[in-house]
Amino acid sequence: MKKLYFIALLFCLSISACKKDNTAPAPAADFSFDGITGSNIAVTQGTSNTVSNHSTNGSTYLWDFGDGTTSTEATPYITFKKGGNITISLTVKNSKGESSIQKKQVKVLVPTIHQITITDINKWVGNDLSPLTKFIGGDVWVEIYKSNNNTTYQYLDNKSYNYPLFYKSQVYTGVTTNNLAPLVINVPDKVTLDGKFSSSDTKYSYNLYVKDVNGTHLLFASDVWGSTFITDQQNAFTWYSSLSTVVNITGNWE
To answer: Looking at residue 143, what is its pLDDT?
Structure first.
């Protein structure tokens, strides 16, 4: 009799457990990027972003970040290496295997150049890069290079490296020593510094040149003297040198 009672008790408990599992609440996937809960999500390339998981009733999570990377963490961090529009999806499952999916469009912004400004070129004095002792006037332009940190480049006679040319600005012609106003060169093409902050292999640098009656001269090389890159709160950036003759390359994250 006791044996039959024990078997009946186990049977009732198993039925109760099954009923309890069958009433598990359905999952609901929900997430945001850095607190942005709406549909217009924009993040900058190369920066680490916090993905906040607001899902309910989930026991497992699968993130697909649209760039070939995935994660099963509840709240992961993601750094986007490529710019453009991508689709992020989160799949949430409960203990019964029921799933819920949420997808959102994310625009990954890359720095895009709009203007190059050269100030105080009349104050330029000789340095180790040029045989010139002072600026005497001529045609002025800037060249931007995109190189690979894993590649060895030849050191040229003009005391720069043979980096692959990425962009050559328009030439500002007829500059004289009396030019006190900044030289402004607009960049009409869409020139993006893709990978500048997302790839350890990619490097950008720029040179300032002048062509005068004696030939073409290198006045400044950011790879030799260094440069600084800053971004303001409106997503505008400035990439500039810190010598007396200042080259400011400006634009926006787009």
So the answer is: 96
Q: How far apart are CA 165 and CA 144, in angstroms?
A: 6
Q: Domain-by-domain residue ranges, the chain?
A: 25-109, 111-253
CATH code matching the domain that covers 25-109, chosen among 2.60.40.10, 3.30.390.10, 3.90.1860.10, 3.40.50.12780: 2.60.40.10
221 closest CA partner among 97, 130, 89: 130
Beta-bridge mates of residue 193: none
Average pLDDT per run of 10 along the chain, which is 254 residues long? 46 46 84 77 87 94 94 92 92 96 93 95 79 90 94 82 95 92 94 86 92 91 86 87 84 94
Residue 210's CB is within 10 A of a number of other CB atoms, namely: 23
- Report d(CA 219, CA 208) in Å as an integer: 5
End-to-end CA distance of the chain: 79
Residue 203: both structure tokens together = 């490097």
